UniProtKB/TrEMBL annotation:
Family classification: Belongs to the pantothenate synthetase family.
Annotated source species: Myceligenerans indicum
Keywords: ATP-binding, Cytoplasm, Ligase, Nucleotide-binding, Pantothenate biosynthesis
Name of the protein: Pantothenate synthetase
CDD domains for this protein: PanC
Residues that bind (R)-pantoate: Q92, Q185
EC number(s) on file: 6.3.2.1
NCBIfam families associated with the record: panC
Function: Catalyzes the condensation of pantoate with beta-alanine in an ATP-dependent reaction via a pantoyl-adenylate intermediate.
Annotated PANTHER family: CYTIDYLATE KINASE/PANTOATE-BETA-ALANINE LIGASE, PANTOATE--BETA-ALANINE LIGASE
Organism lineage string: Bacteria, Bacillati, Actinomycetota, Actinomycetes, Micrococcales
UniProt subcellular location: Cytoplasm
Length: 316
């Protein structure tokens, strides 16, 4: 039995179905209605001002997305508003990628969101987000969009930033939450917000993993049982690299590569140890925090993952 519909003016009890809108006009009306009804402050209760939080997704929601929404609920506060966008953005798909086949289940997604405190779902069609067709003016990710994912998916990061900026303008949140699994995307969004002076707080949430260690992804549904077993090499490689941090940067790379090279059916696009702020490769004499990233194909499915690494002086 479907959950009760959430009142369009604001938050409702747990399990209430979020309001779903598909157009700019309906979104604007729902946002204004909440703004007019939201308490200016709930200082007496210790919660502070009510805030609007947004989680941007492409649908096919899994536990990783739902954890982001739970975090958004906490960031917004009991009297705040949590907006989830569901939009499969064509700008971030390259030629030959899985735009048409990307899993879509809006009704199932909305039912899941009812259990984690979402108030409003914005699920536009492409002609709503891009009313004039393919946009002439786009956001450039600069050199952040030219390495790693950018090298293997040219234009991908520009497409991500373009739609993120548009959705930030449309939703006008106080805080936006992104998963750390897409580490390069999170860095690019943070730099865009800083470089373009956007008035929004960006919060990164830890990667959610299945019990076997595989990072949750909507694309995991493409994996056969055998392919899923092979895909576990990604998280094993990252753990091996992190555990080798005391041996220096070169040892981190070697340990992770060894795991991947020993696994049949895993075609590696890149394995990189980078500065967590700039995404530049770290030198072998690097000391301190770094980020180990991997992208690989298992069968026809492309997966990404990453792990924070503390690189220590090499022991001789």
């Amino acid at each position: 039995m479907p959950a009760a519909e959430r009142p369009e003016g604001g938050a409702a009890g747990a399990g209430a179905r979020p309001v779903v809108v598909h157009t700019r006009e309906a979104l604007r009306e729902a946002l204004v209605r909440w703004t007019m009804s939201a308490p200016i402050s709930s200082v007496a209760g210790g919660d502070g001002p009510a805030r609007r939080a947004v989680v941007m997704t492409m649908g096919a929601l899994h536990e990783g997305h739902l954890e982001l929404v739970r975090r958004a609920r906490a960031e917004a506060g009991a009297n705040g508003q949590v907006v989830v966008t569901i939009f499969v953005n064509p700008l971030q798909f390259g030629r030959g990628e899985d735009l048409a086949a990307y899993p879509r289940d809006l009704e199932g997604d909305v039912e899941k969101l009812a259990s984690v405190g979402a108030d409003l779902v914005f699920a536009p069609a492409p002609d709503v987000v891009y009313p004039y067709g393919d946009p002439i003016v786009r956001v450039s990710a600069g050199r952040i969009g030219e390495v790693l994912e950018g090298e293997f998916r040219p234009g991908h990061m520009d497409g991500v930033l373009t739609v993120v900026l548009k959705l930030l303008h449309l939703v006008r949140p106080d805080v936006a939450l992104f998963g750390q699994k897409d580490a390069q995307q999170l860095l690019a969004v943070r730099r865009m917000v800083a470089d373009l002076d956007l008035d929004v707080e960006i919060v990164g949430a830890p990667t959610v993993r299945d019990s076997d260690g595989l990072a949750l992804s909507s694309r995991n549904a493409y994996l056969s049982d055998e392919e899923r077993e092979r895909a576990l090499a990604l998280s094993r490689a990252l753990r091996a690299g992190a555990e080798a941090g005391a041996g220096g940067a070169a040892e981190v790379r070697r340990a992770a590569s060894e795991v991947l090279n020993a696994t049949e059916g895993v075609e590696v696009d890149y394995l990189a140890l980078v500065d967590p702020i700039t995404v530049d490769d770290v030198p072998d004499d690097h000391l301190g925090p770094a980020l180990l990233l991997v992208a690989a194909r298992v069968g026809t499915t492309r997966l990404i993952d990453n792990q924070a690494v503390e690189v220590s002086p090499q022991v001789t």
